[in-house]
Design a protein that fits this description.
Distance between the termini: 51 Å
Strand content: under 5%
Helix content: 55-70%
Structural class: mainly alpha
Order of helices and strands: HHHHHHHHHHH
Number of domains: 1
Radius of gyration: 19 Å
Length: 266
């Protein structure tokens, strides 16, 4: 009984962590965009506006996914406790911390591209990823809107990634915190439906390697392009970048404030 109570306590704590992270990203971006809605109205990507029913569905599906993420968190914490994932418990080493942030971000993007593209195979799509694509006009609440199977695929890389990185040096706790915070922030902004990047962003050598909200929004509307998460290089290398991505991006990025999108329809 004591073991059951202990595991239940750890599970509750894990759920609290994941739910707080989701709310910080999804609700944080939703509130921010609401506060500046008049200033960014001309930057809405789609003519259609998401409905409250869309947001409710995305939230409920995200809560279900959080349950899966919480189990994966428990596995990760157990591996840390057993010494399978060593942590640096002393002063952080800045060079190691920065290197781990870069390494884990690149690893996550690579995992996401190939996992995401695999989930678009017909059988896997119907069983898993179709749930996420119910959001044809996604909002920040869709950040975790996954079926059970996709939630496993989306999260299982975390303990695996920590194990691989820790083979070189113990994991810097701040590196893990920053990487996971970056993940939910980029995810929420990527689904929010407004393009805030400036004209020329997708062509400049300094920025073209980063995805934009338009990049992922096109994936939701058309499905078979733009599988990347943080970076565009896998899509460009594998020929899966939307052929009109730059054109669609510029159409929004150069839109004047007095030239709003056509009237939204529910």
């Amino acid at each position: 009984m004591d073991t059951i109570v202990l595991v239940a306590g750890h599970m509750l704590h894990s759920v609290q962590i994941e739910f707080a992270r989701y709310m910080a990203g999804a609700a944080g971006v939703a509130v921010l965009y609401y506060l500046v809605r008049n200033a960014i109205a001309h930057r809405r990507i789609q003519n259609r506006a998401a409905t409250n029913a869309d947001r409710r569905r995305e939230f409920v599906q995200s809560v279900r996914a959080i349950a899966v993420f919480s189990v994966v968190n428990l596995i990760t914490f157990a591996m840390i406790g057993k010494g399978l994932i060593p942590l640096n418990r002393g002063e952080p080493h800045l060079g190691v911390l920065l290197a781990q942030i870069v390494a884990m971000t690149v690893m996550h993007d690579t995992w996401f591209y190939w996992m995401h593209r695999s989930l678009h195979r017909p059988a896997l799509f119907r069983a898993t990823h179709a749930t996420h694509h119910l959001s044809r006009t996604p909002t920040s609440w869709a950040a975790y809107s996954f079926a059970w199977g996709e939630a496993v695929a989306e999260s299982i890389y975390i303990p695996a990634m920590f194990v691989i990185v820790s083979l070189v040096a113990p994991i810097e706790p701040w590196a893990a915190f920053i990487v996971m915070g970056h993940q939910i922030a980029r995810n929420a902004f990527g689904h929010a439906g407004f393009e805030l990047a400036w004209s020329g962003f997708t062509r400049s050598p300094l920025t073209r390697w980063m995805t934009t909200t338009t990049h992922h929004d096109l994936h939701h509307t058309e499905g078979k392009y733009n599988y990347g998460l943080y970076f565009t290089w896998w899509d460009r290398l594998m020929g899966t970048e939307h052929p009109r991505y730059h054109e669609r991006f510029e159409a929004v990025a150069t839109r004047r404030r007095d030239a709003l999108p056509e009237q939204a329809t529910a």
